[in-house]
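Section 3.1 - Work completed
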Amino acid sequence: MDNPVVILIENKEESLDKARERGRSWPGQPAPHPGQPGLLHRTFRIGVALHACGVATDMVVERCIRARAAFVVSPCCYGFVQNTVKFSFPRSKKFQEALSYKEHMVLCRFADQTAAEHPPERRHIGKQCMGLVDLDRSWCAEARGYSVRVMTMEPESCSPKNNMLVGTATRPDTTAVTTTTAAEEE
């Protein structure tokens, strides 16, 4: 890919400042933008999110699906997953048939039980719950024409939760009815 354009989207001003500083040595000079991934109105081919806290993972995946872009997402803060105006949980039809919203929220809370201060058996259960939350996300994307892999990054210390979702479009999205806000239409 000749002359790639890197656009960084971040909510925290401190992180944007770090990105600007570090980006000076990157080819193509990344363009940091404050805000949310759903507000990006440019064409792109790959979406990458590190430490995508709670529903931010779902925001990035959804934006990539709408753009038919590949995605690499490292979810975090599973306990912050909750219904919003744009997202309801569980995400996939299979999980909706098996779990209520409250049961899914319990699953998400358990998925946050992976910190080193917890006993090993509790961390193991937390890791399994993370896998289930991410499986729900991957099945949602697969129903919309994506091939998704859920994997664990190594070493374990590379990320607070070290799961990763990698998705690529395999067919057009024929199932989605998209809704947009007035701000997104401008």
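Second construct:
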Amino acid sequence: MKSRSQDQSLSDSRELDRSFDPLTGNPPSKPIKKTIKQRFLKLLPCCHSGSSPSINQTSETDERELSTVRYRPEGLDHLVQQTNFSKKELQILYRGFKNECPSGAVNEETFKGIYSQFFPLGDSNMYAHFLFEAFDMQNNGAVSFEDFVISLSIILRGSITDKLNWAFNLYDLNKDGCITREEMTDIMHSIYDMMGKYTYPCMKDNAPKDHVESFFQKMDKNNDGVITIEEFLETCKKDENIMQSMHMFDNVI
């Protein structure tokens, strides 16, 4: 049976994005259809103080439990300095993270299983692999609470430059400071696989390749075959559609 807080969180999430389907750009064909953003919200820990135990009631419990999980998070005060979350928000996020991951960290297979819920009609395995590597800041094969909230802070509340730097790091698969055609091709194939074959309008087989070519024509200013962070930032900041997408998750929590 779902808890009251889970029901409230899902109810709140359904108030968002009723009129827009991000996959097609059209109104959802059915009122109950969940958008990507709604699924994202459902998986996030509930942050509605009215439906959760008070922070004062849970604070001492949190502090005790921090010492019992396998991967002990850094002190909350330190994470307040590293993120754009308040201490109260971090305490609530921690409790939700701990409920999903009692060991204190998420391995790649678990991460892929969670992420697959976003795209049930496609194969999100490869894209989730790339995303996991971006979240795994310590490169140790696990996403800790610290990794989670630092990346989440950037995605939800970071500056435009911070968000773009995070996206560049995601696309730079070998972390050598530039994006190659091969890397972008792998990313594009993983995205199209994740979207599935039942999107509207239907995707053509050469769509990933065409997307990569368009990406490089727009971004590779000196035509040297790679995209640097400087080229990426300059081009993205001049693109209205990209700038709008940077605000997709504003005010989520």
